[in-house]
Amino acid sequence: MASTSTPSFPSKPYIPRHPSDKWPYTDADFDRQDPSPDDVFYQPTRLVTHIDDQAISKLTQYYALSLPSKGKILDLCSSWVSHYPPKLGMGVAKGDVEVIGMGMNKAELENNSILTSRVVKDLNEDSTLPAEAQSLDAATCVVSIDYLTRPVEVLKEVHERLVPGGEVHLAISNRCFPTKAIRRWLMIDEEERLQMVGDYLWFAGFKKIDILTLSDGSGNGGGWFSRCDPLWIVRGRKEG
Questions:
Q1: Residue 185 belongs to what H/E stretch?
Q2: Distance (Å, rounded) from C-alpha 136 to C-alpha 170?
Q3: What b-and-e string marks burial along 74-107, b requiring 16 or more CB atoms within 10 Å of the CB?
Q4: What secondary structure letter does DSSP report for 147?
Q5: Distance from first CA to last CA of the chain, Å, rounded?
Q6: CB atoms within 10 A of CB 153
Q7: What does the alpha-carbon distance between residue 122 and residue 175 come to, in Å, rounded to a whole number?
Q8: pLDDT tens-digit map of 30-81
């Protein structure tokens, strides 16, 4: 199983803000500027990254500390790169690790060499996970939770498929395609976004939820060119 702590990154526990039977959001919160089918928007192949190199480096470092060295991982909203560490790639090569990639663009998934299987699926049309995504040791999602119009349904599926002690790692930044991000995401600040994603996990059945700061966006060396995209992880662990 994954490590239960990541000492290199500041963290704080998510504190539930709402009773578990009182969903605090409205349908309008999940409307989008562009309501057209997502398969049209994601049809062009985009072999680009959506956070900068420094943020990617921090994410890879976090994954090296947090993802299991053996078992099965689901990469939600996957693309041509998952930002997993080299040691996980070695685990895939040895057959110790299986990585299932779910995304919207077939060519992007086919370019992702760390994936052992690939599923093209629109989770906004059907929130169920594929049959092969069983007994998951971990799940990841990079800067894409803001595009899901039914995030709790998807995360309930993840919770159900995780083994006891398995974790889901949701990477959050302030980068997005604004026409496809949900309406509320564009109206609130970064702290409220993190709390909202914590709410998603809480209502999906996760009870151990943490918020980690991988980058506050300031960089380390001073000056504009040392700046790093902000990046956080909202992490949920299945009890048991």
A1: helix 183-187
A2: 15
A3: bbbbbbbbbbbbeebeebbeeeebbbbbbbbbee
A4: G
A5: 12
A6: 17
A7: 21
A8: 999 999 888 887 777 776 677 888 999 999 999 999 999 999 999 999 999 9
